[in-house]
């Protein structure tokens, strides 16, 4: 019976193929009665399944999938231990997440310079040029700060890391930043800013001793608030972007971990941080690039020609605020996942208190670059940006001694000097 199903002509491979697809019963026959072929098909199926798993795009902006199995160099533990050794009286050992990022690099260097033990962690994702992140890593390497290349969602790695290094503090700066990108890759915000934050807090609360946490929230939590200047007491329930919503979620999550596990947590709401080694997705950075290339730049305005303004804050001022937050952080009260008493929970604005219109930013850049910008003024699209930001910093001034001292012109001068040096090929001397 089965032999009757055999195709009459088998000499031509082309014909053979067409028959295979056109007569399923024949294909079935061949599969069923050739065990080796069946094994081969199964093997191929499993192989392609594995290939699909390994080659599928990274989840949520990170380099790796959320089920993390980070491959690290065999000597990573030795490097982490060495990097973590403090050389100052403070005896601080700080884990800096997002250490290859803009703020993370500056904070890690400042901590190392004063003798704290510092270990960095970053997944080097490609949200913006990874070359810049690698160059920042080189800076940190030279100063003896080791960066572990891993995702904060790697719970197993974090557990191991907290076992081998007893961190006194975590400076948590790893996040999916940027407001507009959330419309292209919303999942990356949940991955890093929500899942990642929770994974890090889980590892921190389980650690013995529990570290104190200082982490970056954002001025974007003020969203559509119109009362100025923005104060920590204002309500923050009108986020204008998914980025803002995830930062707001982070603040609520922080409250929970403080409440249940006794983790000491300080949130810092940064206001448009700028400076050398900055972020290429931010206006001051890509305006500089485009002005130098004589490319048109888009300047947004609100309805009825309302000015768009930002409370630009220079990186050195923000770094001082971060260090002051670490220095004034009280110890967590829990241990081994159990709360033993009430712990500190704080939130501060770290801004500059003097919003500057974006047109003014452009005119300063024109002057510094000695190039006239080709400007196009457009109505601001509804993509998550807000019209203005303006920080009230009296709480940070009072409790952290925070005193920003760099005006936009001075700060941009330093940025432009760095930019020209970095992209002009003198990367080594650009710090
Ligand atoms: N720069 C600003 O103006 C500003 C303003 C408000 C808030 N913030 C916040 O400050 C922090 C630092 O910002 P930045 O400007 O340095 O940004 P950045 O993008 O330069 O740095 C963030 C770093 O985190 C890393 N990262 C992202 N997701 C990660 C993950 N899942 N695991 C491990 N590493 C991951 C990235 O690779 C990057 O190097 C962020 O939390 C950001 O949201 C920044």
Automatic annotation (TrEMBL):
It is a multi-pass membrane protein. The chain crosses the membrane at residues 38-55. Pfam families: Epimerase (PF01370). GO terms for cellular component: Golgi cisterna membrane. The keyword rRNA-binding does not apply. It comes from Buddleja alternifolia. InterPro entries: Epimerase_deHydtase, NAD(P)-bd_dom_sf. Belongs to the NAD(P)-dependent epimerase/dehydratase family. Residues 94-331 form the NAD-dependent epimerase/dehydratase domain. It is found in: Golgi apparatus, Golgi stack membrane. It catalyses: UDP-alpha-D-glucuronate = UDP-alpha-D-galacturonate. Keywords: Isomerase, Membrane, NAD, Transmembrane, Transmembrane helix. Homodimer. This is UDP-glucuronate 4-epimerase. GO terms for molecular function: UDP-glucuronate 4-epimerase activity. Gene3D superfamilies: NAD(P)-binding Rossmann-like Domain. The keyword Transmembrane helix applies. It comes from the Eukaryota.
């Amino acid at each position: 019976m089965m032999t009757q199903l055999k195709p009459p002509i088998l000499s031509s491979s082309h014909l053979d193929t067409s028959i295979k697809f056109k007569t399923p019963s024949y294909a079935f026959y061949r599969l069923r009665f050739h065990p080796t072929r069946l094994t081969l098909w199964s093997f191929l199926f499993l192989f392609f399944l594995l290939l699909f798993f390994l080659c599928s795009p990274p989840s949520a902006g990170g380099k790796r999938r959320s089920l993390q199995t980070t491959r690290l160099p065999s000597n990573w533990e030795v490097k982490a231990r060495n990097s973590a050794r403090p050389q100052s009286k403070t005896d601080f050992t700080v884990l800096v997440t997002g250490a290859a990022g803009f703020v993370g690099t500056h904070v890690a260097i400042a901590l190392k310079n004063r003798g704290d033990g510092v270990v960095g962690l970053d997944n080097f994702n490609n949200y913006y040029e990874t070359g810049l992140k690698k160059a920042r890593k080189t800076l940190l390497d030279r100063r003896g700060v080791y960066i572990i290349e891993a995702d904060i969602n790697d719970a197993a790695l974090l557990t191991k890391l907290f076992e081998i290094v007893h961190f006194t503090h975590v400076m948590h700066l790893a996040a999916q930043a940027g407001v507009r990108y959330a419309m292209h890759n919303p999942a990356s915000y949940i991955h890093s800013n929500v899942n990642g934050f929770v994974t890090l807090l889980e590892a921190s609360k389980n650690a013995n001793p529990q570290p104190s946490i200082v982490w970056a929230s954002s001025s974007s939590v003020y969203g559509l608030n119109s009362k100025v200047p923005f104060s920590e007491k204002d309500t923050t329930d009108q986020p204008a972007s998914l980025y803002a919503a995830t930062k707001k979620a982070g603040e609520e999550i922080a409250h929970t971990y403080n409440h249940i596990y006794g983790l000491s947590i300080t949130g810092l709401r940064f206001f448009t941080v700028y400076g050398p080694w900055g972020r290429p997705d931010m206006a001051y950075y890509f305006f500089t690039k485009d002005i130098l290339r004589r490319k048109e730049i888009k300047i947004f305005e609100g309805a009825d020609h309302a000015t768009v303004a930002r409370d630009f804050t220079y990186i050195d001022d923000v770094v001082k605020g971060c260090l002051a937050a670490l220095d004034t952080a009280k110890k967590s009260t829990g241990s081994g996942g159990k709360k033993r008493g009430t712990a500190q929970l704080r939130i501060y604005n770290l801004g500059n208190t003097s919003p500057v219109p974006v047109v003014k930013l452009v005119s300063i850049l024109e002057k510094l670059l000695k190039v006239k910008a080709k400007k196009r003024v457009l109505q601001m699209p509804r993509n998550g940006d807000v019209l203005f930001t303006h920080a009230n910093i009296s709480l940070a001034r009072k409790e952290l001694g925070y005193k920003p001292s760099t005006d936009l012109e001075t700060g941009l001068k330093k940025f432009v000097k760095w930019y020209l040096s970095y992209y002009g090929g003198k990367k080594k001397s650009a710090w």
